[in-house]
Amino acid sequence: MIKLRPRYSLSCALLALCVGVALAQNVTLDDLRIRAEAGDRSATRQLAEAYYLGREGAEQNFSEAARWYLKLAQQGDVRAQTTLGLMYARGYGVKKDPAVAHHWWSFAAAANDAGAQYNLGLSYANGDGVAQDYERAAQWYEKAAERTHIQAQYNLGLLYLQGKGVAKDPLRAYFWVKVAALQGDDRAQDSLNKVAAGMSAEQVRQAEAQADEWMKRAKKLLK
User: Phi first, then psi: what are they for 33, rounded to 5°?
Assistant: First the structure.
């Protein structure tokens, strides 16, 4: 049996930082801390990310990162809410608490953050911090999938394949797994033959055509 992906997603903005975006020249941690204490949200974010990643003169310190992310999250910062939820899900700098993670992701997901929507789907699928509910998992996966979240697309495809939370639909299953594969996901590509088992050649062609059309419409979101 093909298994769902179990990993929670980090905020897309923080993932971009992991590739390597430096703080502005001559800006020190002390400068950022002073500005953050004064309510500068940009400085607060830079400080939180510096501690989370352990760079730009800061030793990695998840407790400090969580403190500054909480400040942002309480001000409605969607990226911070997603990341803080991840920290509670994994126990990074805070006591591991899936229910609190779910709480923060709910705010970010309502603001249309794809990473938070995927994480909510995964928490419902696994029963982490909430009662297991495949129907709600599928709903959140679909929201994230429509926003081009690859892991959500893959997991949603498998729910359609297995008939969990949605009516069993091999064509829809193949469609979502194919969309993930078209975005370069190796695991999705490797799963296509298993997903196609029992489908007719015409059904596979139909699902692939739908996936191609979806990708054309999604180009703006993928840029």
Answer: -65, -40
CATH number of 93's domain: 1.25.40.10
Tell me the per-residue pLDDT of 58-108, one tens digit each, with 9 for 90 and over.
899 999 999 999 999 999 999 999 999 999 999 999 999 999 999 999 999
Domain span at residue 64?
Answer: 7-111
Please give the DSSP secondary-structure letter assigned to residue 25: T
Helix (H) or strand (E) holding 199: none
Cα 198 from Cα 195, distance rounded (Å): 8
At 152, list the tokens: 């959500």
Closest CA to 218 of 167, 166, 177, 183: 183
Q: Are 169 and 198 in contact (CB under 8 A)?
A: no
pTM: predicted TM-score of the whole model, two decimal places = 0.87
Task: Kindly state whether residues 13 and 105 are assigned to the same domain.
Answer: yes
3-state secondary structure of 170: helix
In a domain, 117, yes or no: no
Structural domains in the chain (count) = 2
CA 221 vs. chain centroid, Å, equals 15
